[in-house]
Amino acid sequence: MRNTHKIILILFLTIFSIIGFMVKLPKAFHHFDKELHLLFYFGATTLVTILFPKRWVISFLALAIFGIMIEFAQEFSNKITIRVIGKAIHGRFDIEDVKYNMIGVCCGLILFQIIQLTFKTRK
Question: Taking the model in full, what pTM does it have?
Answer without folding.
Answer: 0.84
